Amino acid sequence: RNKDLLDPLTYKKWGVSLSKKKRSRYYLIADGEKKLKGFKDLKNKKLVLKSEDKNANVWLEKNSLTINKKSSKKLLDELKKEKNDRRVVFSVFFGKSDYGIITKRAWDVIVSFNPAIKKKVKIIDMSDEIFFDNLAMYSKTSDATSREFFLTKGANPQELKSKKALRLINLLKIDSIFIIEDESLKDLNKFFKEYFELEKRYNWWDQL
User: Fold this and answer.
1) Distances (CA, A) of 130 to 44, 105, 188
2) CA-to-CA distance for 88 and 107, rounded, in angstroms?
3) Per-residue H/E/C for the chain
4) pLDDT of residue 164
5) pLDDT at position 182, please?
6) 168, pLDDT greater than 60
7) Above 50 in pLDDT, residue 141?
8) Most buried residue, 9, 25, 100, 194, by most Cβ within 10 Å?
């Protein structure tokens, strides 16, 4: 939303990848024992997502505004927030929620440990692969030496000589730290621009 204000102050944008793939996508998962039809079928349903995942919430809202011409908040019986991805999946698996939203990466990890989940929980929609696990920036006023060291060495974390830094990277399961060029953000910027336009069009009454 504040892109035009931040861009002139930004030196470099960078991301943290938790897997070999730098971009991710979202899945809409559903209880396979119910006849659920996805985003067009949100009324009086329960949906769960991870509490700190703002992109998941925006993807939900954008789809609801596009398809239903209404915010998901006006349709859902309950929007539940869980503290981790595993709880999101199991909320759907055990019938506590009708739908869940989760990244492809998280889904793949969870079902690799428990393949039986796929017999009960189905993927019924997915986003484009335009999201990043984490997106941050260095400002033009940041210390030049530290930022260049971070952006250069961070691209290959194992080159870091600091044992403390390596322990932190391994603990957080960071695969790589990489610079994000503006060209790589075109699809994501388009996604958010469309979302803000939809939000303005359909939610204007709530803002009065």
Assistant:
1) 30, 13, 6
2) 10
3) CCHHHHHHHEEEEEEEECCCCCEECEEEEEECCCCCCHHHHCCCCEEEEECCCHHHHHHHHHHHHHHHCCCHHHCCCEEEEECCHHHHHHHHHCCCCCEEEEEHHHHHHHHHHCCCHHHHEEEEEECCCCEECEEEEEECCCCHHHHHHHHHHCCCHHHCCCHHHHHHHHHCCCCEEEEECHHHHHHHHHHHHHHHHHHHHHCHHHHC
4) 52
5) 74
6) no
7) yes
8) 100
